[in-house]
Each structure stands twice: as structure tokens, then as C-alpha cells.
Please model this.
Amino acid sequence: MHKKKLVVLSVLIAFVLIGAATSLRQKKGRNLKVLPKDISDQMLDSIMQTYNKALGVNCNFCHTPDNGVSVADSINYALDYSMKENARRMMRLNIDINKTYFYYDTASRPEYLKVITCKTCHQGHPFPPED
Model:
């Protein structure tokens, strides 16, 4: 009976450790400098998809592939790239405009404000159209 409990406990500990290691590995590949470091994978994916639609681009517009080939599986999302730095400046500008000029409830995160968005200026283009 005691041996059976020990085996069950060992299996449970193994599952917990595997889950923690998987979670750490997924978070380790991030290089977040504007968005919150504790953002969920689902929220991060949702925000990135919103950027893709607002600018009419794919992930490799801001994220560079590891091997120079534009394949979604080969993109190194954590690697910094000039366009990614430009996107960060735009994100900071967007956050600042929303916090400064629109109602800002301090109980919510400013990164998630959506009064002014990328689409406001970009209108589905990689670079804002000149009027």
C-alpha cells in the first residue's frame, strides 16, 4: 500500500514538473518590451493578429525568420529586428495617445486600450497612407 502511494506521488510530481518546464519553455521565447511580460499566450496571439489585420501584413513583417526563409515555423519571434523596434515605437505611441487623450481606467491595463488603434492610421496598409 505504501509503495503504491509513493508511485502515485512520483507520477504526480513528474506531471507538475513537465507542465512547469513546458510553460517556462513557451515563455522563454518571448522578448516583450512593451506588452506585459505576464500576458497570456491567447491575449498575445490575439493582439498580434489584430496588428496583422490593421497593417495588412504577416508575422514576418516584424519578426525575422531564423534561416532567411519566410516560413511561419522558422520565425524567431524573440529576435529583435529593425521593423520590430519600429512596431514597438508605434505601440508606445498608441498607448500614450489612449492614456493621455481618452478616458483611462487605472484598473485596466493601458496596453489593452482600443480607442485609437493601429488601424486608425494604417487602414490595412503596412505604412499609413499619405493624404
About this structure: The two ends are 78 Å apart (CA to CA).
